[in-house]
Amino acid sequence: MIDLTRALIGYLRDDPTLTAQLGTFRGHAAVFGVSPVPEPTTPPFIVTQSISDETLGTKGRVVREIQQDIAIYDDDDGGVADIETIAEYIREKLRVHFDVPNWNMCGLQMSGPSINDVDDLHGRVLTARITLVR
User: Fold this and answer.
1) What are the backbone dihedrals phi and psi of residue 35, each rounded to the nearest 5 degrees, phi first?
2) For the segment 46-98, what is each residue's pLDDT rounded down to a tens digit?
3) If you count Cβ atoms within 10 Å of the first and of the last residue's Cβ in the chain, which end, N or C, has fewer?
4) Topology of 4-133 in CATH?
C-alpha cells in the first residue's frame, strides 16, 4: 500500500510558513487524512485524500498514478481570502517533489483551486496528479 496521504500530511506539517496560517488540533497543524475532521479543530484546516489510484502498464517497473485532493476549509464568517492564499501557497509548494516511502516521484501536476463550500465552511480544493515509480 502506498502511504502517499501520510507523506503529504508530513510534508505540509513540516512547513512553518504554511502551519502558521492553519488552525490546530492537539498541538499540531490542522492537516488531516480523514473527513470529518476530529473535534475540536481550530480552522482553517486541510483535508487530503486519495480520490483515484491507477496502475499503469509498463515493462519492468511498477508505476502508479494517484489523484489526491487537498481541500482547505475555514469558517464562513469571513471572506475567502485566507483559504485562497493557503491554496495558492500549497500549489506553489507542490511544484517540488516530496518523499514518499519506497517510491520515487516522477511526476506531479496540480489543478485548482476550485470552490468546495460545505455546510458552514468556505472551501477550496486542489487536485494533485502524482506519478510514482519503483
Assistant:
1) -140, 135
2) 999 999 988 887 778 889 999 999 999 998 776 788 999 999 999 999 998 99
3) N
4) STM4215-like (3.30.2000)
